[in-house]
């Protein structure tokens, strides 16, 4: 290829090269990524197949099971699954965006989405959002073709995609809400509310979610209650918290990067002002995008002053939001966005490779494998001993991943333990056995013992003795600490 031909190719394919550059960068980092607790927990889903699960539907678990069955079980394969699914989301986004944008704007939009931090997080970390965003995007593609291209069979495919999105995460219910909202507000397409194809689509979407509903029916709707009761209670208290609001703003600026976040705020204000003051709605295609943006992005933002909205809850809105942003963003702003993105990704890569800043949390990718090895060595010295932890799922799930034996959670001492309560374990079989209780010191400051026996342990074990803490070194530095307690003669009830 001549220099002139190469120059022409680069000029005409800058967007493609940017996207490939970011994806190659992410793929190159995968081998250096350690296991996150979320990776281990949803891997546990896949190893214990069920129609659904306590805290989420099972799609991410099924996908991890498929990848690890095909390619073998390793941290890299788990991360590679996330990377592949998210890459499909980027391709689907490109297809969806091409329905709304000119060639130039389309190129800007694909660079925008590929450069974001949220795409990197989805590529590296197993969460229900990974399949959710793929099926959310596929749903919008199908619904667009059904509505704007009058290809009615796409209502059927759209129903399937919406159902699979719900089988990924419950927030996908906003897809049906967005669809109906668009048709209600769209004068041109309102007649579709009477179409049997629309209601067929909605019925199919419900039918596809049957496994989730049936699992909940079998378990007293435990998952739905868990996801709704505590949050409803917190919202009903209506306590204003500026910290929650500014925390949400900071999270969104991080996930989207400042330029894209400000573009989101700008066009949201523009369309809201036009609708509320001038009673004027945008054209049908833009209204379609807004119908799947406003309920998730604006809706959750409205809650932020009174409730802690998690950073990933707004992610589905990014799909249509970034397409709208592509209509407004200038080349200058796109360049600034790329500068922010490159800087953040370089800092991120340095943290991954060299672990420069210690993370005072169990939500980290370092130390779990080393901990599992040390626990194995301890167990070899203690006969008839099982291992458990008490931090919802993090330590137990990670040890389960790296150890070829069962590791238990806080249900051992009578506490709710998320899906560990639904694995079918008969704790009576542990009667009389000894145990190693592992407790992470998140604010690790010294190598001292804890010095205090956790009170609940005494209700289930005859004797408890604290052992020397486990200290994990990363790059030669003491970075993580775990307290260890040797507990004898387990009694399920005392």
From TrEMBL:
Name by which UniProt lists this protein: Glycosyltransferase RgtA/B/C/D-like domain-containing protein
Glycosyltransferase RgtA/B/C/D-like domain: residues covered: 55-215
InterPro entries hit by this protein: LipidA_mod_glycosyltrf_83, RgtA/B/C-like
Keyword Transferase (UniProt): yes
Gene Ontology terms describing biological process: lipopolysaccharide biosynthetic process
Topological category with respect to the lipid bilayer: Multi-pass membrane protein
Membrane-traversing stretches: 15-36, 76-100, 106-124, 131-148, 154-185, 197-215, 245-267, 287-307, 313-329, 336-357
Coiled-coil spans in chain: none
Compartments where located: Cell membrane
PANTHER family: MANNOSYLTRANSFERASE YKCB-RELATED (PTHR33908), MEMBRANE PROTEIN (PTHR33908:SF11)
Cited Pfam families: PMT_2
Annotated organism of origin: Polaribacter irgensii 23-P
Keywords assigned: Cell membrane, Glycosyltransferase, Membrane, Transferase, Transmembrane, Transmembrane helix
Recorded GO MF terms: pentosyltransferase activity
One Gene Ontology cellular component annotation held by this UniProt entry: plasma membrane
């Amino acid at each position: 290829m001549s220099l002139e031909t190469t120059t022409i190719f680069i000029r005409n394919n800058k967007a493609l090269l940017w996207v490939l550059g970011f994806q190659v960068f992410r793929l190159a980092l995968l081998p250096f990524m350690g296991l996150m607790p979320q990776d281990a927990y949803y891997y546990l889903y896949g190893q214990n197949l069920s129609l659904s699960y306590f805290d989420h539907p099972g799609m991410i678990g099924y996908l991890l099971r498929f990848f690890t069955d095909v390619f073998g079980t390793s941290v890299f394969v788990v991360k590679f699954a996330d990377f592949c699914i998210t890459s499909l989301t980027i391709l689907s986004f490109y297809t969806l965006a091409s329905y709304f944008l000119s060639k130039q704007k389309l190129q800007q939009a694909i660079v925008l989405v590929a450069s974001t931090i949220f795409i990197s997080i989805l590529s590296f970390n197993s969460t229900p959002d990974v399949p959710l965003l793929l099926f959310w995007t596929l749903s919008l593609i199908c619904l667009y073709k059904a509505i704007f291209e009058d290809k009615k069979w796409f209502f059927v495919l759209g129903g399937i995609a919406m159902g699979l999105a719900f089988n990924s995460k419950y927030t996908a219910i906003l897809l049906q809400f967005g669809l109906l909202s668009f048709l209600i507000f769209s004068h041109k397409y309102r007649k579709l509310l009477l179409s049997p194809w629309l209601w067929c689509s909605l019925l199919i979407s419900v039918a596809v979610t049957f496994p989730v509903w049936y699992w909940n029916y079998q378990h007293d709707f435990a998952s739905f209650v868990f996801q709704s009761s505590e949050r409803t209670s917190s919202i009903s208290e209506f306590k204003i918290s500026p910290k929650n609001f500014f925390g949400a703003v900071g999270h969104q600026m991080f996930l989207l990067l400042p330029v894209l976040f400000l573009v989101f705020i700008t066009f949201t204000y523009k369309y809201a002002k036009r609708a509320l003051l001038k009673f004027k709605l945008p054209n049908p295609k833009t209204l379609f995008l807004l119908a799947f943006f406003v309920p998730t992005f604006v809706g959750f933002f409205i809650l932020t002053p009174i409730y802690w909205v998690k950073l990933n809850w707004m992610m589905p809105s990014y799909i249509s939001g970034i397409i709208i942003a592509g209509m407004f963003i200038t080349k200058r702003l796109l360049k600034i966005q790329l500068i922010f993105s490159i800087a953040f990704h370089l800092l991120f890569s340095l943290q991954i490779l060299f672990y420069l800043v210690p993370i005072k949390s169990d939500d980290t990718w370092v130390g779990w494998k080393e901990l599992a090895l040390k626990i194995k060595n301890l167990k070899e010295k203690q006969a008839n001993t099982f291992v458990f932890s008490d931090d919802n799922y993090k330590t137990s799930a990670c040890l389960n991943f790296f150890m070829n034996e069962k590791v238990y959670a806080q249900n051992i001492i009578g506490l709710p333990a998320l899906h560990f309560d639904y694995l079918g374990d008969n704790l009576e079989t542990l009667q009389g056995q000894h145990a190693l209780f592992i407790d992470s010191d998140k604010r690790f400051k010294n190598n001292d013992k804890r010095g205090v026996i956790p009170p609940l342990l005494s209700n289930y074990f005859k004797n408890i003795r604290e052992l020397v803490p486990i200290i994990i070194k990363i790059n030669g530095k003491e970075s993580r600490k775990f307290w260890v307690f040797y507990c004898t003669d387990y009694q399920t009830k005392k």
